[in-house]
């Protein structure tokens, strides 16, 4: 067998296996069956090219392969159901597949829970490997790759003077009097019971909420900084979910919860409050329209910058819900995506909550889009006149996920990112909550944000670290 680790746009790993005994190319993908497998097909074509070159220069007599025409072998998906439930373990699954794939099945059971331990195990394996040329180096030896710099990147600082240390973590100081944590909580409880006025109680509750929010911010600021993007996302989302008071989410007077955390003014203003941002993480809430529109704006900006770097032309347009020509559509919290191919005269309908309704159920919405499209096209192409009814209407493979209405907005965003002009190319992540976290962090790191200073400093610190990792990967 020949193993091909395949990476899709620096976002997902899966394994391709050339099985000479069966004359098949196997696909092992932790997210289950994918669409297209263009990267693997191109790799197999490259392998075929190398085999042909060798065959021309050297006669292959004693090989064991029954058929050397690898490019003609069928590509078969061997993992039909998703095994991965997070957004960062695909590479770990792939390594396990390489170890346990026998050609017909996995010799050992591999689960998402196993990946947490394997992540640490892999670190030890890499360090202890014979290929690690730095393993035997002492701390005093210079690093050849860094000139005169010491190989140890950790600098031990002297302890600052006059640092007060607690001898007992359960002891707090109030008015120079040490009392236990339980006594302190009991005192607060007794004070609350003694309040007879509703307004006084509400005022005290708001003060406690502000104190708890400040405590969360302080805890985030003194915690060790996570090293990976996944861990950073989790920390940021966990912090945001601790904001649990409605007034704290909306009022500018409460610490670190000013009304707008994200603001983009062009081409029209979109403002996201802390409450709207927190709503992204609430599984029972559909995607907010403002959050969706800003996410589309961010997606369009990122793709435009990528095209400029690669000197390529624009092959698709992302339109948000503000315009009547909008390709993504939303009604009562449900989102779906229409993709119009003007050259092939095809309307692709991507409905993540697909419920086996006939294509004609979307015809009225398609016709309305065409009515506005005719008005727009008159400016660019006078005389252009098309009707939606004669066009071929299709539901692309991979779009029928059958998810809850509340998750459709996040999957429509994923569809817009994965659409290559003809089909969905990127394997679809089935973990809706991971998608929510991705969208949230992408909104907080939006480059045109005019209200970044309204966010807590601890959050901004984590976001700067996240951006640095993203830029380094790019």
Keyword list:
474 residues, alpha+beta, Adenoviral Proteinase, Chain, 4-stranded mixed sheet
**The level-1 CATH class of the largest domain:** Alpha Beta
Helix/sheet category: alpha+beta
How many separate domains make up the residues? 3
> Segments where pLDDT lies below 50 for 5+ residues?
146-176, 245-258, 321-326
Question: How many helical stretches?
Answer: 13
Taking the sheet with the most strands, its summary is:
4 strands, mixed
Radius of gyration computed on alpha carbons: 28 Å
Q: What percent strand?
A: 5-15%
Task: Calculate the mean pLDDT score and round it.
Answer: 76
CATH topology of the largest domain: Adenoviral Proteinase, Chain
Extended strand count? 12
The shape is globular
Strand order of the largest sheet: 1-2-3-4
CATH superfamily of the largest domain: Adenoviral Proteinase, Chain A
Overview of the molecule:
- The protein has 3 domains: 2-116, Adenoviral Proteinase, Chain A (Adenoviral Proteinase, Chain, 3-Layer(aba) Sandwich), CATH 3.40.395; 187-250 and 456-474, no CATH class; 260-455, Adenoviral Proteinase, Chain A (Adenoviral Proteinase, Chain).
- The chain has 474 residues and is of the alpha+beta class.
- A hairpin with a 2-residue loop joins strand 9 (328-331) and strand 10 (334-341).
- Helix content is 41%, strand content 13%.
- A 4-stranded mixed β-sheet has the order 1-2-3-4, sandwiched between helices.
- The chain has helices at residues 38-57, 90-100, 112-128, 181-194, 198-222, 229-241, 246-250, 274-279, 289-310, 363-380, 408-418, 432-444, 457-473, and strands spanning 2-8, 12-19, 24-28, 75-77, 171-174, 177-180, 260-264, 270-273, 328-331, 334-341, 346-350, 392-394.
- The longest helix is centred in the middle third of the chain and has 25 residues, at 198-222.
- Mean pLDDT is 76; it is low at 146-176, 245-258 and 321-326.
- Helix 6 (229-241) packs antiparallel against helix 13.
């Amino acid at each position: 067998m020949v193993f091909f680790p395949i990476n899709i746009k620096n976002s997902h790993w899966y394994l391709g296996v050339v099985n000479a005994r069966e004359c098949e190319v196997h696909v092992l993908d932790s997210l289950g069956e994918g669409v297209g497998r263009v990267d693997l097909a191109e790799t197999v074509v490259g392998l075929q090219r190398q085999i042909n070159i060798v065959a021309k220069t050297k006669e292959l007599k004693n090989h064991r392969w029954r058929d050397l025409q690898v490019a003609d072998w069928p590509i078969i998906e061997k993992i039909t159901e998703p095994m991965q439930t997070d957004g960062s373990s695909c590479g770990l699954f792939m390594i396990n597949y390489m170890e346990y794939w026998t050609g017909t099945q996995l010799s050992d059971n591999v689960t998402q829970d196993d990946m947490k331990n394997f992540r640490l195990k892999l670190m030890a394996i890499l360090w202890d490997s014979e290929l690690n040329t730095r393993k035997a180096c002492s701390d005093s030896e210079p690093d050849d790759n860094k000139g005169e710099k010491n190989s140890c990147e950790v600098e031990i600082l002297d302890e600052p003077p006059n640092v007060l240390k607690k001898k007992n973590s359960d002891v707090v100081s109030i008015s120079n009097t040490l009392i236990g944590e339980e006594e302190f909580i009991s005192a607060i409880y007794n004070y609350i019971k003694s309040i007879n006025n509703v307004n006084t109680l509400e005022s005290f509750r708001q003060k406690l909420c502000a104190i708890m929010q400040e405590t969360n911010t302080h805890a985030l600021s003194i915690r060790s900084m996570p090293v990976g993007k996944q861990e950073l996302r989790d920390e940021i989302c966990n912090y945001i979910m601790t904001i649990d008071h409605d007034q704290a989410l909306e009022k500018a007077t409460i610490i670190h919860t000013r009304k707008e955390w994200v603001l983009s003014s062009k081409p029209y203003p979109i403002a996201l409050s802390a409450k709207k941002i927190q709503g992204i993480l609430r599984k029972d809430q559909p995607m907010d329209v403002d959050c969706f529109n800003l996410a589309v704006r961010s997606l369009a900006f990122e793709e435009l910058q990528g095209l400029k770097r690669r000197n390529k032309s624009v092959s698709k347009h992302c339109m948000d819900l503000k315009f009547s020509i909008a390709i993504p559509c939303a009604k009562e919290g449900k989102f779906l995506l229409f993709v119009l191919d003007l050259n092939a005269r095809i309307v692709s309908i991507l409905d993540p909550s697909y419920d086996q309704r006939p294509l004609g159920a979307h015809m009225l919405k398609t016709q309305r889009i065409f009515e506005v499209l005719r008005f727009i096209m008159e400016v660019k192409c006078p005389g252009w006149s098309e009707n939606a009814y004669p066009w071929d209407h299709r539901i692309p493979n991979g779009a029928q996920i059958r998810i809850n209405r509340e998750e459709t907005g996040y999957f429509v965003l994923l569809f817009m990112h994965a659409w290559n002009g003809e089909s969905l190319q990127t394997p679809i992540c089935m973990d809706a909550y991971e998608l929510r976290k991705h969208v949230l962090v992408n909104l907080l790191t939006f480059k045109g944000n005019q209200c970044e200073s309204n966010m807590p400093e601890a959050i901004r610190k984590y976001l700067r670290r996240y951006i640095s990792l993203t830029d380094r990967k790019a």
